[in-house]
Amino acid sequence: MPISEMQLTKRQLLGGVAAATATLAVFSTAQAAVEMPKPDGDVDMAAVLKPGELPEMALGKEDAPVTIVEYMSMTCPHCAHFHTTTFDEIKKKYVDAGKVRFIIREFPFDPRAAAAFMLARCNPSKPEELSTAEQYFPMVAMLFKQQQTWAAADDGRGALLQMSKLAGFTEDSFTKCLTNQKLLDQVNATRERGSKEFGVNATPTFLINGKRYSGDMTVDTMSALIDSLL
Known about the structure:
By secondary structure, the protein is of the alpha+beta class. 56% of the residues lie in helices and 15% in strands.
């Protein structure tokens, strides 16, 4: 074999080694970037899962090995980010596969967030009745996707009315929902319970198999946590 060809082969070999090393480095960096979230406390999941003031808004099998309870506020940008970038993928990967039961609980930080929760809880055609999970989750998703449209609007009521009409509300059913004092009291009671009994003081907060986690999570981060529990 000519020396030039041998040198070329060596250069190719060295180049291949360098490329492989770079690939491993990138892989290691990617792996290191997915760090397991650290809990900020323990919770009694048996107590967490006892019935509250409102019917549970849940998706997934009741006997799923992992239970996630999310306390959130509808005007919280971190909550909106989680639900527009992470929730759907987690639902596909784990909830629909029977591995996770996902529960949403109300933790409004302001009157506008409370109003948004009330609208999600109301049946649009019969506002005196509560919505089902099949109505609740799509309403929450829509409000989060359009959060900037209504959460900071000068006319909050008008902005929420326009959003609600997309979900089937009329101005009359919208008004009846938002003047339901019992429902408002129940939403506030849900928040108080989360705060007093389970140490929730920020949103989003996730109670997952006996541990409490605060802050937004990416798909990779939550997936890593769920996988560690399966």
